[in-house]
């Protein structure tokens, strides 16, 4: 199973490497769906990586298929949060006369 993870928006996720073999030791192929914007799957390295750019909860589905067409489905969640407070420029104190 792949562990769920939570990350700050515009911060890279922890890379997820998909490992799998069928019962005869042959490699499997993976199809990945549901990734947040900014996160991708590289089939050459079997790695999910990237920097999510949109806040939300994303249910990611991985379908692994062996040469015989047998499949296994794995689901995990990437939660993208924005917990950083905004920066506000200081406002100077002001003094004024009444009725002016």
UniProtKB/TrEMBL annotation:
<dbReference type="GO" id="GO:0005509">
    <property type="term" value="F:calcium ion binding"/>
</dbReference>
<dbReference type="Pfam" id="PF05345">
    <property type="entry name" value="He_PIG"/>
</dbReference>
<dbReference type="InterPro" id="IPR015919">
    <property type="entry name" value="Cadherin-like_sf"/>
</dbReference>
<protein>
    <recommendedName>
        <fullName>YSIRK signal domain/LPXTG anchor domain surface protein</fullName>
    </recommendedName>
</protein>
<feature type="compositionally biased region" description="Polar residues">
    <location>
        <begin position="43"/>
        <end position="53"/>
    </location>
</feature>
<dbReference type="InterPro" id="IPR013783">
    <property type="entry name" value="Ig-like_fold"/>
</dbReference>
<feature type="region of interest" description="Disordered">
    <location>
        <begin position="1"/>
        <end position="53"/>
    </location>
</feature>
<dbReference type="GO" id="GO:0016020">
    <property type="term" value="C:membrane"/>
</dbReference>
């Amino acid at each position: 199973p792949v562990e769920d993870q939570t990350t700050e928006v515009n911060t890279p996720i922890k890379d997820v490497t998909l490992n799998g073999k069928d019962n005869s030791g042959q490699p499997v192929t993976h199809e990945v769906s549901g990734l947040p914007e900014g996160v991708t799957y590289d089939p050459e390295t079997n790695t999910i990586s990237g920097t999510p750019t949109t806040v939300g909860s994303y249910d990611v589905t991985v379908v692994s298929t062996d040469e015989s067409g047998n499949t296994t489905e794995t689901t995990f969640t990437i939660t993208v949060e924005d917990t950083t407070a905004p920066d506000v420029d200081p406002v100077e104190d002001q003094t004024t006369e009444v009725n002016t």
